[in-house]
Design goal:
Elements (H helix, E strand, L loop, with lengths): L1 H21 L4 H17 L10 H57 L3 H11 L5 H8 L3 H23 L4
Length: 167
């Protein structure tokens, strides 16, 4: 369509400058929107009735394209904000759930027999090696390992049965 090529040649700079000002002098946005404006003008060129100047018609199309672009950016930013909020909510939920599980574990540990409770507390909270725990409780370190493993299984079983947690 030779006629449209002439229109593009005549008005491309005008439409670009119009969009440049609208976009707050964002050069890349103005270039992209100019191309989109001329594409839309080309697609709807058959409906142009000549009731206004071609330049006015092109600028109207450019303005509509620009406002659509702005609405899309706002929507995208809102979506991003929602995603950020959702991620924060998930992170907080995970922390809260972790604390709740920790509270349940501590409750179960408190209900263990004293020897088993001491072993678990020394191992988990004091991070003591089995040998040191054995010295403190006058037990062999192999015995401490076995008792710790059994206590751990008891804790996991109660967590699953009473609270539905599997760890």
């Amino acid at each position: 369509m030779k006629e449209f090529e002439e229109i593009y040649t005549l008005y491309q700079k005008d439409v670009y400058h119009f969009l440049l000002k609208l976009s707050g002098y964002d050069d890349s946005a103005a270039e992209e929107l100019t191309q989109e404006s001329f594409y839309q003008a080309f697609v709807s060129f058959g409906r142009f009735r000549g009731e206004c100047e071609v330049k006015s018609w092109l600028c109207q199309i450019a303005k509509n394209i620009y406002y659509s672009h702005v609405r899309a950016q706002i929507k995208q930013n809102n979506m991003k904000a929602k995603v950020d909020v959702n991620q924060e909510v998930k992170a907080v939920s995970a922390i809260v759930e972790e604390k709740i599980i920790g509270m349940h574990i501590k409750k179960i540990i408190q209900e263990l027999e004293e020897r088993d409770r001491n072993i678990v507390e020394y191992r988990l909270f004091g991070e003591l090696p089995y040998k040191e725990i054995g010295i403190l409780l006058d037990l062999k370190d192999a015995t401490v390992k076995v008792l710790f493993s059994r206590a751990k299984v008891k804790i996991q079983k109660r967590l699953k049965e009473e609270y539905g947690y599997e760890i």
